């Protein structure tokens, strides 16, 4: 497999530049957009109430717009998740990151997990992207695999490790590897939660992440200044 060096600009295109804190204001979201443009990220990810954004501040400046659904617990009725996702799409979201019912996964109720995802998939239409947050740190390896299979069966575009709010923790290279192996390139893999340094980000990509959820994007990218040089990654992983 051929490798190419991953530099600052290339890494930035893996990033969903994220602001999901409960205290965030519209002014904070506007500042996130400006920083995202400056950093050259793929998208900005905000809470649904921060939408809509003026296309002149986002798409026309090279940013996709992502939001979350059923966040952060996932313990919402599927109809509520679907309605939330539908409203976000109407408000201009290009991508929706939904949280599964982690308790259903822990109970082995993967038909229910698949049905929940499918309800949101039906609301995220028009070529828009659906990412499924499985909260991998709270799951066993077998549950991670089953959750990824349920997401694929329901028509998701990505599986995602974490909300970043669960007490069990965020992304790990082990979980990312297992998720990537399970979906086999048919879905993207987003690593999110606890990815705070350049080394963290590069490790996630090396283990199969095709997107990164970062709230501290500037600090991660500043690692290129602190540690000159670039890291080789498979050219097949970039630009998902």
TrEMBL record:
Active site positions: 97 (proton donor/acceptor), 160 (schiff-base intermediate with acetaldehyde), 190 (proton donor/acceptor)
Where is it mainly found?
cytoplasm
Query: Where does the record place it?
Result: Cytoplasm
Q: What protein family is recorded?
A: Belongs to the DeoC/FbaB aldolase family. DeoC type 1 subfamily.
User: What is an example of a GO molecular function annotated in this UniProt entry?
Assistant: deoxyribose-phosphate aldolase activity
Keywords annotated in UniProt: Cytoplasm, Lyase, Schiff base
Catalysed reaction(s)? 2-deoxy-D-ribose 5-phosphate = D-glyceraldehyde 3-phosphate + acetaldehyde
Pathway noted in the entry? Carbohydrate degradation; 2-deoxy-D-ribose 1-phosphate degradation; D-glyceraldehyde 3-phosphate and acetaldehyde from 2-deoxy-alpha-D-ribose 1-phosphate: step 2/2
CDD domains referenced in this protein's UniProt entry, alphabetically: DeoC
Q: What is this protein called?
A: Deoxyribose-phosphate aldolase
InterPro entries linked to this entry: Aldolase_TIM, DeoC, DeoC/FbaB/LacD_aldolase, DeoC_typeI
Show the PANTHER family listed in the entry: DEOXYRIBOSE-PHOSPHATE ALDOLASE
Q: Which GO terms describe its cellular component?
A: cytoplasm
Q: Lyase: present as a keyword of the record?
A: yes
Q: Please, one GO biological process term?
A: carbohydrate catabolic process
Task: Give the species this sequence originates from.
Answer: Paraoerskovia marina
